[in-house]
Specification:
By secondary structure, the protein is of the alpha/beta class. Helix content is 38%, strand content 14%. The strands form 3 sheets. An 8-stranded parallel sheet has the order 1-5-6-7-10-11-12-13, sandwiched between helices. A 3-stranded antiparallel sheet has the order 2-3-4, with no helix packed on it. Strands 8-9 form a two-stranded antiparallel sheet.
Length: 370
């Protein structure tokens, strides 16, 4: 197949304490820090946690469980195939070597710690996200030709989010990273329209990533395996909210991607949205109804997905979504890192070479305007 630039649409940083050097001085007394715990059986080798505003992250046991591998002081992080400098972007050259080994030319970086809502104090959350954005800008700025990043915005404080998206654009962000909900708020909430308006003006796409964003769902899950429910379902809620809640109608130039939730749910979900669209168009009193069938928005060219390279139904999803809108990711350096995902895509016999070339780089380059 034809070779071209390979763009990894979704990989990660494992956050490091150096990020908080950029924290607003007013909040330095509340600076997050890593703690190490004795290693009970339940923790396996995930024996380090972040202490943030009186809580620990990740929470590996009990109601509200979640799992990720930052901070880097854990035995788990030290045992990975990726160096600590690569994981935390304290050694950019090490990350580039890992990208070379995976056959990746350009990588777009997303957070790990911020896949959870870290505090109920929205002003503090704003400061944490600003520090993260400043650190990513400096780290990726060492090799801007190969390392790109998506900015975090405090969506629960819309005016602060508008100011931060302007700053992030100036710092070099290529997108905005969000979870599937803003707390209990759907991403179609009217308070977010001012943010989307500014993103559209700045030509920054919305990148909806899996994560533990919804408090009610989080409380329903009491171990790391069931926590994948609260990790994944907000992305599906976001798709319904953005497509069915008027965001695409109100902002006709806004691009949106749905990341790390796989793609095989798309035909089912769009089918259900179409089903209820026909009945609720006649019956709904109040609230917003989209201007056309939800499936019709897929042909507009503004909705993108990442996939798992081995998904059996991937050809059918591509047929529905369009071959110009499926992207691939390595998820580096996470525990389920798909560092060979690019090769898996290349080796598939059920996807034409033309489409593979688009999936491996052209589509992500178009989405992120690289």
């Amino acid at each position: 197949m034809e070779t071209s630039r390979v763009v990894d649409a979704d990989s990660h940083i494992e956050e490091v304490p150096e990020i908080w050097d950029y924290l607003d001085p007013r909040y330095q007394s509340r600076r997050p820090f890593p703690i190490t715990v004795e290693k009970p059986v339940e923790f396996t080798n995930l024996n380090a946690l972040w202490y943030v505003d009186g809580n620990v992250y990740p929470k590996l046991i009990g109601q509200g469980s979640m799992v990720f591998a930052t901070p880097l002081t854990s035995d788990y992080a030290r045992a990975k195939m990726f160096s600590l400098g690569s994981q935390g972007l304290t050694d950019v050259e090490a990350r580039l070597r890992d990208m070379d080994a995976a056959g990746v030319d350009v990588q777009v970086i997303f957070p790990t710690l911020f896949l959870a809502t870290l505090t109920d104090d929205v002003a503090f959350e704003t400061a944490l996200m600003q520090a993260y954005n400043s650190y990513l800008a400096k780290a990726c700025g060492q090799r801007p030709d190969r390392l790109k990043w998506a900015a975090l915005l405090p969506l629960r404080a819309a005016e602060e989010a508008v100011r931060e998206v302007r700053r992030a654009k100036e710092l070099g962000a290529v997108g905005v990273a969000t979870l599937g909900t803003a707390g209990e708020m759907l991403l179609s909430h009217p308070s977010l329209h001012r943010v989307y308006e500014e993103m559209e003006r700045l030509d920054l796409p919305l990148c909806v990533h899996v994560g533990w964003s919804h408090p009610g769902l989080n409380k329903s899950c009491d171990n790391t395996y069931t926590s994948r429910i609260s990790f994944t379902l907000p992305v599906l809620a976001a798709f319904w909210a953005i497509v069915g809640g008027g965001v695409l109608d109100a902002f006709p130039r806004l691009r949106v991607a749905f990341l790390e939730a796989g793609s095989e749910w798309l035909p089912y979900w769009v089918g259900r949205m179409n089903h209820y669209y026909h009945s609720d168009t006649e019956n709904q009193r109040g609230g917003y109804m989209p201007k056309k069938r939800p499936s019709d928005y897929l042909s507009e060219g503004r909705i993108y997905f990442t996939c798992e390279a081995e998904e059996p139904l991937l050809p059918q999803v591509i047929e529905l979504l369009g071959e110009d809108h499926m992207m691939t990711s390595a998820d580096m350096p996470h525990g389920e890192a798909r560092e060979r995902s690019m090769d898996v895509i290349r080796q598939r016999k059920d996807i034409p070479d033309r489409v593979k070339t688009k999936m491996l780089g052209e589509n992500a380059a178009r989405f992120y305007k690289l």
